[in-house]
Specification:
By secondary structure, the chain is mainly alpha-helical. Helix content is 55%, strand content 5%.
């Protein structure tokens, strides 16, 4: 998610997981820098909550990625076409 105009949020689309992770880390770094201007106590509390939320989100994404079913191989028939069901 990327901040847009008028407090809107724009989704950043990535077709694969591999390029999405570095992009997410870059956006999170930008938000962390913006957060640095806040009151030190409130800032630290919010940083801990952000770190925990990001850690939980990454754990869920990793678990989901590991549980995705593997694509099945389609055995060709003698005609060279995939079998129909």
């Amino acid at each position: 998610m990327v901040p847009g105009s008028n407090d809107a949020v724009v989704a950043d689309h990535h077709p694969d997981r591999e390029p999405a992770i570095p992009a997410a880390n870059a956006v999170n770094s930008t938000f962390r820098q913006a957060l640095s201007a806040r009151d030190p106590i409130a800032k630290r509390s919010l940083e801990l909550k952000i770190d925990k939320a990001l850690q939980d989100k990454q754990s869920l994404q990793d678990a989901k990625h590991e549980c995705w079913p593997k694509p099945r191989a389609v055995m060709p028939t003698t005609s060279g076409r995939a079998p129909t069901r």
